[in-house]
Amino acid sequence: MSACDLSGPVLQSLAKLRSLSVIRLDGNHISAPVPGFFANFSNLTVLSLGDCGLHGTFPKEIFQLPSLQSIGLLGNYQLDGSLPEFSRNGSLQHLDLGWTNFSGLLPNSIGNLKMLSTIDMIIAISPDRSPSQ
Known about the structure:
Blueprint: E1 22-24, E2 46-48, E3 55-57, H1 60-63, E4 70-72, E5 78-81, E6 94-96, E7 101-102, E8 118-120
């Protein structure tokens, strides 16, 4: 359901659809925090939420989903978070945190993600901030 002009937060009723394996909501006007209930979707392989106006803190538990192969959060400038410790059995292949407000150290355990082939962490520095701030 990418770029289909949806607006408002993701409805709690979506939490009942735990069998979903792909969620693509890129380019919609969600303008809300990422729902923590996505971490209960044990079959989730793709979570694509780019350019949705997301804000708040990204739930670390979502990174821990064993079947998750791709997370796309590109362009959610007000979304913050940090990377967790990754387990040895993670299947993450693609991680796109570009143009978000994620911060912190890259954990050594990222080496546990043997299938990881793409990682994008492009950041923007606003004109009123210097790189040392």
